[in-house]
């Protein structure tokens, strides 16, 4: 299991907040796949077999990420507030390019796969900073019965 | 048969590399000097002793170069892994300087990358495609790191890279 000191060095806002490491390190999936509920595939808008992407549009733009998650039943929403019955995702953006995504759990907390490293459960803004930029977009869809 | 041709025939039977059959310039690595090898002045035993020395020396140079490349590769991998551990963007990963330097190692990097894939699958596919010009990964396996790694290892074995 990863040393929390490394995580807090990379993401200084994690210090003094409550967060848990919830998985071992894995190169098999990344944050975008994890936001979509997948833990055995690497997702990125790249037109090659290096990654999976659910739509035939390959751009590192917020619009492309929105369209990809529209495909999964998500629509844009105003804020990250917990809404019972709804599953939300958040897109972190740096210099107009999406760098990370987090997914809201049924208890209102957020789960993230940190690149090729570990999954954590955290406060949404605690991953903002030099690596992922800021949270700029929220999307939601109804929780499936299985997830509830 | 003249001694030179006799030695060449023996070397050919031994499946020696073409450079070892160069009968004029054996000492390419001696401070950059090129020394003509006077075959006709040596007995067969002397010629063999000399050739053996040159072969061993060149083999050692090759081994030493390989060790240097392995060390460089290992350092570059470590830097790349540390710096990209928290990234999800494949673009950011492959544009990292260390990754680009690994691609710059060219063909020499292929077996090292494939061994990395065997040991710890990661985003080495861009580099392998860039160096080899091949892509053995099926469309339906896109993003499936294990399946992609297996496809490359299979290709590597069939091509003799591993």
Structure, explained:
The complex is a heterodimer of chains A (148) and B (162). Helices cover 15% and strands 26% of the residues of chain A. Chain A is an alpha+beta fold. Chain A has one domain. A 7-stranded antiparallel β-sheet of chain A has the order 1-6-5-4-3-7-2. The two termini of chain A are 29 Å apart. The model of chain A has no long low-confidence stretch (mean pLDDT 93). Helices cover 61% and strands 0% of the residues of chain B. With 162 residues, chain B is mostly helical. Chain B has 2 domains: 60 residues, no CATH class; 73 residues, no CATH class. About 7% of the residues of chain B have low confidence. The chains are: A alpha+beta (148), B mainly alpha (162). Chains A and B meet through helix 2 and strand 4 of A and helix 3, helix 6 and helix 7 of B.
**Cα-to-Cα separation, first versus last residue of chain B:** 41 Å
Kindly name the structural category of chain B. Answer: mainly alpha
Detail the poorly predicted runs of chain A: none
Number of helices of chain A: 3
Q: Strand-residue fraction of chain A?
A: 25-35%
Question: What is the count of helical runs of chain B?
Answer: 7
Q: Strand order across the biggest sheet of chain A?
A: 1-6-5-4-3-7-2
Helix content of chain A: 10-25%
Multimeric status of the protein: heterodimer
Count of discrete domains of chain A = 1
Order of helices and strands of chain A: HEHHEEEEEE
Secondary-structure element series of chain B: HHHHHHH
Number of strands of chain B: 0
Distance between the termini of chain A: 29 Å
Search tags:
heterodimer, A: 148 residues, alpha+beta, 7-stranded antiparallel β-sheet, globular, B: 162 residues, mainly alpha, 7 helices
Quick structural gist:
Chain A is an alpha+beta fold and 148 residues long. In chain A, 15% of the residues lie in helices and 26% in strands. In chain A, strands 1-6-5-4-3-7-2 form a seven-stranded antiparallel sheet.
């Amino acid at each position: 299991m990863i040393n929390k000191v490394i995580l807090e060095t990379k993401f200084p806002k994690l210090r003094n907040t409550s967060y848990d490491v919830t998985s071992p390190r894995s190169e098999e999936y990344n944050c975008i796949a994890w936001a979509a509920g997948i833990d055995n595939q690497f997702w990125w808008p790249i037109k090659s077999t290096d990654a999976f992407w659910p739509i035939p549009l390959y751009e590192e733009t917020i619009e492309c990420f929105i369209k990809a998650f529209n495909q999964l039943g998500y629509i844009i929403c105003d804020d990250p507030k917990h809404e019972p019955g709804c599953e939300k995702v958040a897109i972190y953006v740096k210099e107009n390019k999406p760098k990370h995504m987090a997914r809201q759990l049924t208890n209102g907390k957020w789960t993230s796969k940190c690149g090729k490293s570990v999954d954590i459960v955290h406060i949404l803004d605690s991953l903002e900073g030099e690596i992922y930029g800021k949270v700029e977009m929220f999307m939601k869809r109804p929780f499936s019965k299985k997830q509830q | 048969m003249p001694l030179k041709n006799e030695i060449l025939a023996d070397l050919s039977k031994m499946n020696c590399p073409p450079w070892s059959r160069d009968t004029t310039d054996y000492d390419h690595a001696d401070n950059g000097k090129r020394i003509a090898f006077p075959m006709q002045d040596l007995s067969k035993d002397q010629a063999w002793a000399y050739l053996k020395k040159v072969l061993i020396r060149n083999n050692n140079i090759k081994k030493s170069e390989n060790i240097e490349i392995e060390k460089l590769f290992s350092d570059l991998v470590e830097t790349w892994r540390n710096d990209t551990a928290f990234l999800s963007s494949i673009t950011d990963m492959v544009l990292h300087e260390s990754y680009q330097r690994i691609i710059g190692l060219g063909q020499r990097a292929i077996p090292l990358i494939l061994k990395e894939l065997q040991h710890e699958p990661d985003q080495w596919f861009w580099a392998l495609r860039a160096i080899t010009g091949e892509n053995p990964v099926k469309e339906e396996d896109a993003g499936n790191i294990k399946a992609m790694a297996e496809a490359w290892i299979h290709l590597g074995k069939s091509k003799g890279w591993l």
